[in-house]
Amino acid sequence: MNDTHYDVIVIGSGPGGEGAAMKLAKSGCRVALIERDDRTGGSSTHRGTIPSKVLRHVIQMLADYRRNPLFKGVTEHIRPDYTALLQNVERVIEQQVQQLNRYCERNHIRVYHGHASFVDAHQVKLSSSTQDEKILKADAFVIATGSRPYHPQDIDFNHPRIHDSTSILQLAHTPYSLSIYGAGVIGCEYASIFCNLDVKVNLVNSRDRLLSFLDDEITDALSYHLRDQGTVIRHNEEYARVETKDDGVILHCRSGKKIKTDMLLWANGRTGNSDKMGLESLGLEIDSRGCIDVNENYQTKIAHIYAVGDVIGAPGLASASYDQGRYAAARIVDPQVDWQLDREFPTGIYTSPEISSLGKTERELTAENIPYEVGQANFSSIARAQIAGHTVGMLKLLFHRETLELLGIHCFGESASEIIHIGQAIMNRRGKANTIRYFAETTFNYPTMAEAYRVAALNGLNRNF
Predict the structure, then answer these.
(1) Which of 72-86, 210-224, 261-275, 352-366 has the lowest mean pLDDT?
(2) What pLDDT is attached to residue 90?
(3) 116 beta partners
């Protein structure tokens, strides 16, 4: 068998590439996985999901200790250094890399390191600084190259005071103050991280509210708690220019405001990693943000070339990327496969406190004239939350007034990204099985955070008439 010919070549080893490669290998395909970096895992492992969540976890632990009366006077003067926290990040990254490498070896997936560019529709050229160029051939391809922070041309990202979500992981010291331009998921998460390190944070939002795709009550709660932690939020502001000085960086806004801080974190958008791959020469369509156009089955215009994950745009979630990769692989193995991805999936936002959401918001249900009711459980009334000292937050269930069908789940508070999956399992059931009565009539362990579902369901049923 030709050592350079494979059934499928997967380009990119992040969540989308991993999901595709594993599914293909388990299905008996001969698979090659190409990763541009020296280590597998992609941006999610090295520059995105994993690093920011490790930082958030450690900082949340410190915040919990500070709140606990048993440690009063012990932790008040602890000022953890940001660079020291990054050492813990590297520990988890290395574990993730080794794990993926073991999976690839166990499943006989050949891993190549280097930059892949298409020669034609069935061949890619592998370029590397450490070895000669190589041509690899395949019957099908899955492009899962991910994305990187968007860089406007008028901002000097080589300046030591200007950072994006990648370079912020390489800081040599903890800044005294920080402006974050962009109040999306990444901006809000890093605002939570730095304000809990006692950094003075300005969160500059070009819209009129944070994370407007979420339920209004949830985003109102997030805004309140970010401000309570010391973050200054500035809505409806757009940058005009960025000025760097020896002692700081000034963000000039179109409104005339000038915001000066030690550093600037640019967190406004991402660009798909589709450049320099020879895709245009194949006739594949790429938009202004580097995103590859695909159909509902993640196929490009060339049927045997698929693209998944951040390189195709929204939703930009590691969890969704992994499933897209598995789905594309299943379609390659069997084009008639009887499997459709769920179009409804939870979002997990690792601010402090966490946010997770699934389904419709109140705003959407009102606009669609759907009669609904709300069931709510405040964490302050949940015994487990009282025990853990995590009484900030709530679970909110939206359901149809007549059929009692579960329409939306919105959670704000500790472990929100875990709690959401209980409701997800019920929402994915069909017919009468998907009603709020399930939670009211099910026995939950006590005391647990899951009990919030029973409290919220009973609250909603008592409101309904």
Answers:
(1) 72-86
(2) 85
(3) 126
The string of pLDDT tens digits covering residues 196-207 is 888 999 999 999
Report the alpha-carbon distance of residue 51 to residue 37 in Å, rounded: 17
SS3 (DSSP) at 305: strand
pLDDT of residue 60: 81
Cβ atoms of 169 and 47 closer than 8 Å: yes
- DSSP output for 119-164: EETTEEEEE-SSS--EEEEEEEEEE---EEE---TTS-TTSTTEE-
List helix spans (H) across 207-271. 216-228
The reply to whether the predicted model has a pTM over 0.70 is yes
**How many Å apart are CA 19 and CA 436, to the nearest integer?**
33
Residues 359 and 398 sit within 8 Å (Cβ to Cβ): yes
Q: Walk me through the domains of the chain, giving residue ranges and CATH numbers.
A: 5-149+271-333 (3.50.50.60), 162-268 (3.50.50.60), 353-463 (3.30.390.30)
Query: Residue with structure tokens 């529709």?
Result: 121
Angstrom distances, CA of residue 38 to CA of 41, 103, 115, 205: 10, 17, 11, 36
**Alpha carbon distances (Å) from 334 to 29, 215, 330, 342:** 12, 39, 6, 19
Q: Which tens digit of pLDDT belongs to each residue from 267-324?
A: 998 999 999 999 999 999 899 889 999 999 999 999 999 999 999 988 888 889 999 9
| pLDDT value of position 428 | 84
Question: Which of helix, strand or coil describes residue 43?
Answer: helix
d(CA 145, CA 269): 17
What is the secondary structure of 441-459 as a DSSP string? TS---SS-TTHHHHHHHHH
Which residue type, as a one-letter code, is found at position 114? G
Q: Please, which residues bridge with residue 118 across strands? A: 124
By DSSP bridging, strand 239-245 and strand 248-253 are: antiparallel
What is the rounded end-to-end Cα distance, in angstroms, of the chain? 70
**Dihedral over Cα of 102, 106, 107, 109: its sign:** positive
